[in-house]
Design brief:
This protein is mostly beta strands. It is built from one helix and seven strands. It has a three-stranded antiparallel sheet, with no helix packed on it. Strands 1-3 form a two-stranded antiparallel sheet. A two-stranded antiparallel sheet has the order 4-5. Strand 4 and strand 5 form a beta hairpin. The termini are far apart. This is Interleukin 17D.
């Protein structure tokens, strides 16, 4: 059995865009609702899901008494999903110390061999 939830949304308004009104979803919880009773679990976090969308953006030009529009691509939040929270460990490959060491190694490899 699939359970679907109606997500809350805000209406984005831009008079220079077509469509002028675009609904944008947002996440209600910091964590994710899990388990039989839908308890909020902070081992996961709610994060928006985005969808690329084409809109028309009005330019300052007119042609034949009508506005001129250009195609523009925007990302719109359309829902939420759960992602696991990352463990914060000192030995992690993603730690800032490891990133700084990698930058040093890359910079050393970029130097000309004559030095």
């Amino acid at each position: 059995m699939n359970i679907y939830y109606l997500l809350p949304c805000r209406i984005s308004y831009d008079p220079t865009r077509y469509p002028k009104y675009i609904p944008e979803a947002y996440c209600l919880c910091k964590g994710c609702l899990t388990g039989i009773y839908g308890e909020e679990n902070f081992h996961f976090r709610s994060t928006p899901v985005y969808m690329p969308t084409v809109i028309l953006r009005r330019t300052s030009a007119c042609a034949g008494g009508r506005y001129v529009y250009t195609e523009d691509y925007v990302t719109i939040p359309v829902g939420c999903t759960c992602v696991p929270e990352q463990e914060k460990e000192a030995d992690s490959v993603n730690s800032s110390i490891d990133k700084q060491e990698m930058k040093l190694l890359v910079n050393q490899n970029d130097k000309p061999a004559s030095e």
